[in-house]
Structures are given as C-alpha cells and as structure tokens.
User: Fold these one by one.
Assistant:
Number 1:
Amino acid sequence: MKKIALLTLLALTSLTAFAKQQTVTLVVPTMNCVTCPFTVKKALQNVEGVSKAEVTFETKLAVVTFDDEKTTVNTLTEATKNVGYPSTIK
C-alpha cells in the first residue's frame, strides 16, 4: 500500500513539473479612458491561473502572467471581451 501511495505521489509531482508560467501581451484597443484598465485588470485577475496582470491605458496593452496548466490565452482574451474590451495577442 505504501508503494502505491509513493508511486501516486511521484506521478502527481511529475505532472505538475510540466506546468509553466507564461507571459503574454494583449492589445486592448478599445480602452478609451484612464479607468478602463481597472476593469480589464480585474477581469484578467479573476481568471484561474493568472498570477499577474499589468494593464496600461497609454499603450493599450495588458501584460499577463499565467499558469498554462490552468488557463489559456484564448480564455484571457475571452475574459477581456466579456467585460467589453476585446483583445488580441500582440
């Protein structure tokens, strides 16, 4: 029984070893006021797996760091679109 538990633990550990932090830059062209980035940032932070989101009005960019085992770039762009700010990969 201990052998099975150890093998299971090793298998789970090796699976999580493949998870990797990714960073993507999104263009959010419809941000037209200085408060828009707050909405976009909050939407991105609410996506499971996002560890950091920096959104800048002047450049209309969102730089997002996320765990690629928990979310995808498509999910991130959907999150911004769902709050009224469609985005694309830069």
Number 2:
Amino acid sequence: MVRHRAPHGALLALALFAAVRAAGIAAVIATNALTDRPLVRSLAHSWDSRWYLNIAAHGYGRLIWITPTGGVQSDWAFFPLYPALVRAAGTVLPLTPAAAALLVSWTAAVVAAYGVYLIGHHLYGRATATALVALWAALPHAVELTIAYTESLFAALAAWALYCVLKDRWLWAGTLALLAGLARPTGFAVAAAVIAAAAQQLWLRRGQVAPGVWAAALLAPLGWLGYVLWVGRCTGDLTGGYFAVQGAWGSRIDFGAGAARFVGALLAHGGQVIYPVALALVLISLVLFALLCLERAPLALVAFAGVLVLLVVFGSGSFSSKPRFLLPAFPLLIPAARALTRTWRTRPASALLVGGALAVVSVLYGAYVTVLVHSPL
C-alpha cells in the first residue's frame, strides 16, 4: 500500500475541488430539468457512457454501431478497467448501473484531486498545491471528470503513478501505470512517463539503480499492450486489429492533418461556440507545455503532459473531444498555479476574483457542453 502522511492543507484543497465540481453537477441537473430531460441523463448516459454501461452489463462483443458512411464501430475501442469497476460496484452495492458508474467516477475524481495536491505539495508547497487543485477543478471541461466517463479514473491512476515516481516508489509507479493502461487508450502516456523517469535514473546513476526501477519500466506498458493484443487476437489480427477498431472510430495518428482541415473549415464557415473554445484550449495547452518545460519540472511530469499534448495535436477525431483528452494533463497547470500563488501573496483579492470567475465559467460551460451541445464530448 502507498503510505504517506497527509500534508497540511489537503482538506482545504479537496473541499475546494468538491465544491466546484458539486456545483457543476448541480448545474447539469438543473439544465436537464429546465429542458425537460431526466435529471441525471447527461451525467450517466452521454455519448461514450452508454458504451461503458453496456460493457459493464454484458461484456465485450455485444454492441456495434453502423455509421452513416457504412463504417462499423465496436465496443472493443473502449478499455476495460472502468466498466469492470462499474460492474463490481453494482454487484457489491444495491445500485443501478448508472449510479454505480457515477460512484466510480466521483470517487476517482476525489482520489485524483488528492494525488494532484500531493504532487504540487511535494514540489512547490501547500499554496501552489491548493492553487493547482483549484485550477484543475475549474477547467472549462472539468465537468467531464464527474460524468460516467474514464477521465477521472485515468487521472487518478496517472497522478498517483507520477507521485510514486517522485517519491521513488517504483513498484507502485509501475503497477499504477499498468492499470492506467487498462483505463484509456492514452494510458501509455503514464507508461512513457515512468519509463522516461526510469531511464533518467539509469543515466544519472550509471546503471546502478534498485531492481524496482527496472521492474517499474517493465510493468508500466503491460496494461496497454495487453489490451491491444487481446483486441488483436479477438479480431484475428494480433498487431493491427486494435488499430483497425480505433480507425473505424476515426481515431488515428494523422500528424495534424485533420486538425489543419478543422481549423480551415472553422475559419471559413464558423461553427458552434464549442469549436473555437476547443481550438483555443488546444493552443493554450501548447503554451502551457512550453512554460512547464521552462519551469524545469520533473521529467516524468513533462513526459506525461507532453505525450497527451502530442496525441491531441497529431491525432484525428472529433475536435470537440480534444479538451477532454487534455483533462488528465494536470501538470500543464503548474505554471499557472505558481503564478496564481504569487498573485495571492501580493493581491489576494485579485487571485480570488480570477479563481471565482474561472469556477463560474467552468460550472456554466460544463452544463452547456453536456446538456445543450450535440457534439461528441
């Protein structure tokens, strides 16, 4: 078990996180009510949520979707850890599948926020750690941490794996990275971070490292690789089957060609608010990544955030989903958290105004994207 002493101030940070995200959940429920929808429909039955609930109830290979162009989309595109936890929660507790899914997501969100706080506290102290958690809670798409999606689970595993790297708990880091690889297609970003940090240790210590470092590097990619190979086996193409499944969903590496076409179409024809906001958030992520590098943040954090940013920029797929893919990349917020901490020390009223404004925008925009917009989350 990962052991540590809870640092002073953690409860305040978690209370801020819970307050902002609870307000976001309430806003979604209220918007559902105002638009005559079932109150928790947008929390538990939006887009990918329905696929996860079906996997939790019936397993894989039971649901496909034929697209208007004749493409065949299957449930093998969705990684197994989240539906497995949903099924387990529904088996142990008297909950509907939707309630079990929300319980898993909300619990994972709090665990993730605590991991984010621990990393911030370890590197920069209590004030910056609190600011980091608060900013993460107030991201425009942070509502997606508390719907029946995998972002909160993935973020929890990633945060704790990275914290274990920083604390030299290598076996735990490798194990958590393995689990992260079973949670999302982007799970190999955690494996890349653990492997990069292990390689750095080998370089700095000229190969004289504890066996746990080697074990972590070997364990880290096994979850992702295992699922990819399992899907390949099920489809009859061991090494290419998984990528064919993802390709049917429009998910592939196109080195930014799709993003360039999207930007061109957006400039030429315009679009819903969600699209320019998504583009702005992707561009901001590039700036934040550059600032993170200038901060000389630990290699594991830089590698993790960098892989996620690269996947968003070079990957195809719906542009409206890209901000969600960036949600787990909390290290990108470190420069902003440090700046907000400096502002708090000199002009606390300004820091509160900025934080409060971000929280209000997050709550309102979260309800908008989950209830009112008809684009993929």
Number 3:
Amino acid sequence: MRSPYADWMKIGLDSWMLGIEASTVIGMRLTKLAAGGPGATAEAQRMVAEKMQAAWELQVAAATGRLGSTPEAQASKTLRHYRRKVRANAKRLG
C-alpha cells in the first residue's frame, strides 16, 4: 500500500534538488557577472527576462488548469517547470 505522504516526500526532495541546482546556477552567473563586460551585461538582462518569462508561463498554466487539480499535482508541476529552466541555464553556463 502506498503511503499518503509519498507524493509530499517526492515534492520535498524535488524542492531540495531545485535549491541545489539553483545554487549552482547562481554561482556560475555570479562568476560571469563578476568578469564584467558585454557578456555580463547580456547575462544580467537575460537573467531578468528569463525569470519574468518563467513566472508568466507558470501563471498561464495555473490559470488554464494545466497544473492539475490537487495541491500535490500543482506543487509537483511547478517544481518541474522551474527545475527544467534551472537545468537549461546550468547547461548553457557550464
């Protein structure tokens, strides 16, 4: 029998992983920003634009019901959305 807390345990672990992955991207971005120059300016602009786009996409998904109907589904899909964005940045910056 599956535990009623299994979904929340996975959500907790996914949240933890998002934190680790985001910390890595923050470090890579800070290195790029500290170097200065046109690359740093472009990265700063990209960072702000990406954050606004990711938040907008998530709001649209929530408004249209694509996040699901349960709190567990909504939390899981939200984490998946942000982890995908963070992993793409890690790959690009790495």
Number 4:
Amino acid sequence: MSVTIKDVARAAQVSVATVSRTLNGHGNVAEEVRRRVLAVARDLRYTPHAAARSLSSRRTQTLGVVLPDLHGEFFSELVRGVDQIAREHRLHLLVSSYHGCPEEQVAALRAMRGRVDGLLVMSPYAQAQSTVAEELDSALPVVLINSQCAVPGPMSLSIDNYGGAQAMVDYLIDCGHRRIAFIAGPEANYDAHERLRGYREALARRLPKAAEWVLPGEFDEASGHRAGLALLAAPQRPDAVFAANDMMALGCLFAFAQAGLKVPDDVAVAGFDDIPLARYVHPTLTTMRVNIAELGARAARLLLSKLTAEQASQEAAPDTDEPRQSELLQPELIVRESGMRRGGDG
C-alpha cells in the first residue's frame, strides 16, 4: 500500500496540517519540526498525491506547450529550453502539436484547460490567429512565441525575422554575390513571410536592378532538396542561395553535393536558425543564429513570472487592463564554410 500524508504525520508525531505546510515550503513551521517531517517523509518514501495537491493548491504544477509541429531540430531545441526551466522549478510539461491544422490547434488548446497552470503557444500561421484569440482562456497565464495573435494581455516573444533576413542578404552582397536565390517557407507562416520580406527589401535596397529569385519551400529538407534541383536545372546558376531555414539549406546542400558542385566555390549557401546540425555538416553552414533553446527558456521564464504576478494579484484588486508586453530577439550572423567570403563579379 502507498504511504499517505496521515502515515507521515503519525510517524513524525505532528498534525496532517503541519506535514502539508512543511512539504509545501511554508515558513510557519519550526525548524526542528520541519527537519523531522522531511526525514520521516524521506524514510517512508512518501510522494504527495498530485491530484490531491492540485485540489488543495489549485495548481497542477504543469506548464502547457502547444506547437505547430514536433518534428525537426528547431522544435526539439525549443522544448529542451522550456523543459530546462520547468525542471529547475520542479514543474512538468504537457506538450501538444497541431501539425499546422487550425482544427487540431483548437482541440489542443481546449485539451489544456484545467490541466496546466500556464500556457506557451506558438502559432505562426495567419489563418489561425482569430481562432487562437477565441480559444485562449483569459484566466490562464499565456506567453505567445512567434505568434501574431492580436489578443490583449498575453506576453509575446518573437524573433526579428525581417531584420535577420536583411542582415544575411547584406552579408552575401558584401561578399560579392549578385545573383541571390531565396528558398521561401510556407506561404501562410508568419516567420517565412517576414524572412521573404527581408530578402526582397534588402535586395531592392542594395541591388535595385537585380531580379528576385524565389523558390517555394516548406521548412523541411525535402523542399530544400527540390529547390536545389530546380536551381541546378536553371539556365544560369545563382552566386548564392539563402534558405529561409536551416533544414531547407541542408537539403539544398545535399542536392549540390550530388551534382558535384563545390560550396562555396561554385555557389554559396546560407540558412536561418542555427540548428545544432548546422555546425556538423560539410561544409559547415553559414546562418542567422537564433538561440532556439534560449528562446524556449526565455518564454518559460516569462510565463513563470506571469504566474507569480497572477498569484500576487489574487491578494489585491484585479487589473483588468493589463498591457500586452512583447520582446523582439535579434538573430546573429554566423559565418561558416558554406558562405565564406569570395571574390565577386561586381
């Protein structure tokens, strides 16, 4: 039979309330009593019942994470960063993916209700924004990650995709490249939209006579490989290829390697995100670094600070006009072998 809180109280010769206060970290317990209760709980291998603790504290000790996908290094790194902060605070994660489907996103958000203390939501798809706004529970602390959701209240944490894309195009032009192709991401994805906008505006600003060269992509290796094959079949090869994320850049690199092209001697290749694999491929990948794990960790810290503020506000008058807070993270240009500077023609 499992050990109960009453067993701990009996063995420690204190009340159940004293055991509860001790295990929940309350300060109104004498130090000698606290040590005795903790020692007895440890000796008896007592584990608090999660459901009972939730009922008494109105906390689940769980953070919800709703993401568009779980496949790929970006999402694994993001969850790793969130999990690091959660573990530091002895919290659990409830993770769900909606695979870019608005209906599944609604189901995921609804499934989180009553099961989590706070919610991290990444919703980069434009068609889902109104849905997210409708489904977010105003009583549940929320932090949005890379989401363009016009909801009053939630904190938001985003990457400067537009500025990062401009910085990469500027770098490639400074290296002497003039024919710069761009592998775009999904059309409805906000990150992809902003990176494409940055590419177009930087190209127009720096090379007003240069034509855009945009190929479709889906943020995965296969679409990057298809784009690479399309570029190989073009009448004239580009000087450089800028992919809207690293996974597509790696797929493009593979297509070029299959064709015997030398990167960066024949054509330079660059990506965006700086996933861990980017530094271990050959040639190593030039990219815009988004510290993905830190993005997840930062979002988790923001959520925990909001949880603390929510708890404190319960003892004061509620603030019904809480302003939305947002942070914009700046990506960093990381120059590696695939995009090293070479002599240009202009």
